[in-house]
Amino acid sequence: MNPMKTAIAAALAALTLSLVAQPSHAGDISEITAKEYYAAKYYADALEDKRIQKIKSDAKKMKKIARSIKMKVSELKAALEKVDALTGKASDLAKSAIESGFATTRVDGRVLDVLINDTEPKHVVAYVRFQAKNSREVIKDASTIANIVHTKAPFISTLSLAAIHPKAAKTSKKSVWGAKIGSDRMQNINPKRIEDYAERMYKRLFEVVESKPF
Q1: What percent of the chain has pLDDT over 70?
Q2: 32-57 burial, b if ≥16 CB within 10 A, otherwise e?
Q3: Mean pLDDT confidence for 94-113
Q4: Residue 21 and residue 135: Cα distance in Å, rounded?
Q5: Euclidean distance between CA atoms 48 and 210, whole angstroms
Q6: What pLDDT does 95 receive?
Q7: Counting C-beta atoms within 10 Å of the first and last residue's C-beta, which end of the chain has fewer, N or C?
Q8: Is a pLDDT exceeding 60 seen at residue 2?
Q9: Parallel/antiparallel/unpaired status of strands 124-131 and 156-164
C-alpha cells in the first residue's frame, strides 16, 4: 500500500477516535443521562489502568472498556462526546441549571442550598435545602424541586431534600421535613399536576421521610 495513503488512513482513524475530545458544539447538562455520565467517567479512569495502557490499539481499548460496562462501542463514543462537549465541570453546570430552574416556580426565593456530590459517578447525589411555606404544601415544594432537578440534570441519581421551618433563619440547618427520591421516581412527576394532585399522586414517591411538627 502507498505509504502516503497509509499515513492518511492512520490520521483519519486517529481523528475518529479523538472525536470525543473535539466537540463540534457546547454540550448541555440536561441532555446527559446517569448512564452516560458514569460511562464517561469510567472511561477516563480506565485509561489510567496499566492493563488498558498495555493495549496499543485505541479501538481495542475502547472496545474493552465498553464491554466492561456492558455498552456498545457506539454508545460509549456518544456518551464521551456529550460529556466532553460540556463547557465546565458537570457538578457546577448542574448546580447553576437547577438553581436557575427554580425561577418563577412556587419555590422561587425559598431554595437555600443546592449541593452536588459526584465523587461516585455511578450514583450522583443532589442535596437541596429549602424553606417550607407550611406543612400542608411541603409535598408540593418537594415535588417541584424534584421535577426541576431531574429535568435540568438527569444524570443525578438521588435527590436528598431538607426543609426548614417557615419562620426559621435562612442559616438554620434544623429541618422539619426531609426525604429522598430517586431519578426513576422523579421522572414520574408532572409539573402541571403538582398544584392539584401532589399530595395524592406524588407523596408516595418520596422515601426515608422524616417529618416534625411545624
Answers
A1: 88
A2: bebebbbbbbbbeebeeeeebeeeee
A3: 98
A4: 49
A5: 42
A6: 98
A7: N
A8: no
A9: parallel
Characterize the bridge pairing of strands 207-211 and 156-164: unpaired
In single-letter form, the type of residue at position 147 comes to N
Q: Is pLDDT at 9 greater than 90 in this prediction?
A: no
Q: Are 132 and 162 in contact (CB under 8 A)?
A: no
- Close Cβ partners of 95 (under 8 Å, ≥ 6 residues apart): 114, 115, 116
Q: What is the mean pLDDT of residues 113-137?
A: 97
Question: Which residue in this structure is represented by grid cell 437555600?
Answer: 112
What is the predicted pLDDT for the residue at 20? Answer: 43
Residue type, 4: M
Per-residue pLDDT at 7 exceeds 50: no
Q: Which residue matches cell numbers 456529550?
A: 82
Q: Which three cell numbers mark 155?
A: 444524570
Take residue 45 and report the three cell numbers written for it: 479512569
Calculate ∠ Cα 174-176-181, nearest 5°: 105
Return d(Cα 165, Cα 31) in angstroms, integer: 35
Residues 31, 156, 209: CA angle, nearest 5 degrees: 140
